[in-house]
Each structure stands twice: as structure tokens, then as C-alpha cells.
Design a protein that fits this description.
about 0% helix; about 40% strand; about 70 residues; SH3 type barrels; mainly beta
Length: about 70
């Protein structure tokens, strides 16, 4: 299943393939390839990048994306 990450805004929650970890989207450079994320279970964790192919599903879309 392809995920269109262009519309995902900070606050969205995604599930990562492989380990099933839930990730909170903290930023979206809107390049169609990467999201800035943090694990939901570890809000103090360092922000990391998540590649579009690592996303298993969008759990919650978050706030409305800005233009």
C-alpha cells in the first residue's frame, strides 16, 4: 500500500514496517520522501527521519496540512 506523505502534518501518527513502532510526525519537509518523527512511547527520544518506504500505515492524520 502506497502512502501519500505530502499531506501528513505534524501530529499525525504512523506505524513503521518491521517493528510496528508507532511514530509521531513532528515535521514534514514535503519532499515526498521523508518525515521527521519521534516514537510515541518515548516522547523525549531524539527526532529521527523516516523514509516513505518504512511506513506500514497511517494510524491518524493529525492536524490539517498547511499550503
Amino acid at each position: 500500500m502506497a502512502v501519500d506523505i505530502m499531506t501528513l502534518a505534524p501530529g499525525a501518527t504512523i506505524r513503521r514496517k518491521g517493528d510496528g513502532v508507532l511514530l509521531l510526525v513532528t515535521g514534514n519537509p514535503r519532499d515526498g520522501m521523508w518525515l521527521h518523527v519521534r516514537p510515541v512511547e518515548k516522547p523525549a527520544a531524539e527526532e529521527e527521519l523516516c523514509f516513505v518506504e518504512e511506513i506500514a500505515e497511517v494510524v491518524r492524520t493529525g492536524t490539517t496540512a498547511e499550503s
